[in-house]
Amino acid sequence: MPAAKQATAKAPTPRERARAQTIADIVRLGREHLALHGAAALSLRAVARDLGVVSSAVYRYVQSRDELLTLLLIDAYNELGDAVDAAVDALPEDDFAGRFHALGRAVRAWALREPACYALLFGSPVPGYQAPGERTTVPGTRVVLRLVRNFDAAHRAGALAAPPGPAVVVPPALAADLAAIRSELGLEVPDELVARGVLVWTSLFGAVSFEVFGQYGADTFEAREELFAHQLGVLAGTVGLA
Amino acid sequence: MPAAKQATAKAPTPRERARAQTIADIVRLGREHLALHGAAALSLRAVARDLGVVSSAVYRYVQSRDELLTLLLIDAYNELGDAVDAAVDALPEDDFAGRFHALGRAVRAWALREPACYALLFGSPVPGYQAPGERTTVPGTRVVLRLVRNFDAAHRAGALAAPPGPAVVVPPALAADLAAIRSELGLEVPDELVARGVLVWTSLFGAVSFEVFGQYGADTFEAREELFAHQLGVLAGTVGLA
DNA sequence: GTAAAGTCAAGAGCAGTGCTCTCTTTTGTT
DNA sequence: AACAAAAGAGAGCACTGCTCTTGACTTTAC
Predict the structure, then answer these.
(1) Residue A61, CB, strand C, below 7 Å
(2) B110 sits in which H/E element
(3) Does residue B160 share a domain with residue B82?
(4) Is residue A22 part of a domain?
(5) Domain check: are B224 and B158 in the same one?
(6) Up-side HSE of residue B81: CA atoms within 13 Å toward CB?
(7) How many separate domains does chain A show?
(8) What is the pTM of this model?
């Protein structure tokens, strides 16, 4: 077993290092083009031009345009995940409401900073492109996992008030789905609150999407920061996070 | 002033009728392509092929690809608006909660029926395309207008319970925006409820977008209808719609 | 050392796109 | 029937993703 033959994991050969660097450059340039012209207009030829190389050469590193999209997708998911993790970890573990607000603000701030990346993750699916689940689910679930774990921790700590407003019944078919989620993630939160947690999740991204995608008119809302803070406050209330 | 010369408004000449018919055909074929391949892949050449005409000929009817997108945008907004209107009008005027649920279900049903159109309206903006506000704002605000008018009517009728949960303060900057909205639309609903109404609006479309855009995993939720109904129920509760 | 194997960039080429231009044909009006 | 406006055809430009072949270079093996 010659060591040099399968050094892929331990000692990267100069060739492998150069290759990895080139791929990193391609992803970096791809992100620039994504930010400037959007996902649908992402062009391998343009990236190749910026890389100072002929178009066919990039196919040595990236199988196809879709493969580049996948790389950018994973990159973006992880950047968002890192931003959320940093914001949440900056607060004490038992500050559940604070952590919820921090998570929401982190998502919004990142989305406004990188609207094209946000659109790639949470906007309309790119036509003809199907994200490979085995590579994207793990980074793609970081935020929601963080959100739900915070809820569960709050519930375990007895820090969750009873959900306000009229009780909304959870039908059996939905309860089955929620039970599967609860068991897979090891949650103690009751059905009613898991369902409300899902609503909070979708509502959070709904609010951010409306802002990033320009669904609010051009000048309907000047105080968008305050509007979002208010929305977070109401959402926190609906799950009993004081 | 020869009458035949400016008959544009009164008596359409055969030529104008043929022209209007061709434009309608182009929009129809455009919608088919939109549904099949998505907005970014909408191709004037393909539409021309289906129309049985050479590509340059369609430019006699549609200025550019973006113009066709605008036509499709208005078409879709009006179709959604019609669907919502029909669903809401089917219930008595004073059934405010029922009308809210009907509106939500109508939006979701249309979105699931026409995912590509929904993506065009509420998904990531098409890169390089800017919707002409003077042509799209009126049809684009039909749903939210319907939503907010129903809220206001419920409030006027005294059918709105006090918002549940902890009171969330509305900061002055946000209150200014809300005041402008209130005066423009002639609303009587107080600030706190207008703000919550905005949250309900964004949350409704957030939930629909997550489902249409496949943000729920492939098999996380089987009972999506029930999930959405539950979400509508909780949202209705947050604005005091029993 | 030298030869084989592996890697990479370049360029041509295919099929597609949006869009413009010119030329010819159709068609409604007078 | 004559005319002008409208519509279609076709060529052409610059661009896209992607494939294939060719030639050069680097690493590995004997």
Answers:
(1) yes
(2) helix B96-113
(3) yes
(4) no
(5) yes
(6) 18
(7) 1
(8) 0.93
Strand D close to B19 by CB, under 7 A:
yes
**CA–CA separation, A75 vs A72, rounded Å?**
5
Do residues B166 and B47 share a domain? no
- Considering only CA atoms, name the residue closest to the C1' of nucleotide C17: B43
Residue B6 in any domain: the answer is no
B41 and B160 belong to one structural domain: no
d(CA B214, CA A95): 32
CB atoms inside a 10 Å sphere around CB A66: 15
Question: Where does B5-64 have alpha helices with state H?
Answer: 14-37, 44-51, 55-58
Given a contact cutoff of 8 angstroms between Cβ atoms, the answer to whether A181 and B91 are in contact is: no
Question: Do B98 and B56 reside in the same domain of the chain?
Answer: no
- Encoding tokens for residue A170? 């959870």
Say if residues A199 and B211 touch (Cβ distance below 8 Å): no
* Chain B residues lying within 8 Å of A210, measured CB to CB: 202, 205-206
Which residues 179 to 218 of B reach strand C, CB within 7 A?
none
Residue B111: domain span: 76-238
Matching residue, tokens 């003077």:
B134
Q: Give the CATH number of the domain where residue A179 resides.
A: 1.10.357.10
Q: What is the mean pLDDT of each run of 10 residues along chain B (242 residues)?
A: 40 80 94 88 93 94 94 96 98 97 98 95 86 92 97 96 86 96 95 95 98 92 97 96 85
d(CA A182, CA B107): 29
Average pLDDT over chain A reads 91
Residues B21 and B56 in one domain: yes
Residue B232 and residue B97: Cα distance in Å, rounded? Answer: 10
Q: Which nucleotides of D are covered by protein (CB under 7 A)?
A: 6-12, 15-21, 26-29
Give the whole-angstrom CA distance, residue A104 versus residue A199.
14
Residue-wise pLDDT for A180-238, tens only, equals 999 999 999 999 999 999 999 999 999 999 999 999 988 899 999 999 999 999 999 99
Whether the CB-CB separation of B135 and B66 falls below 8 Å is answered with no
Q: Could you tell me where the beta strands, DSSP code E, fall in chain A?
A: none
- Chosen for mutation from A114, A121, A145, A202 (greatest number of chain B CBs closer than 10 Å) is A202
Asked whether residue B128 is assigned to any structural domain, the reply reads yes
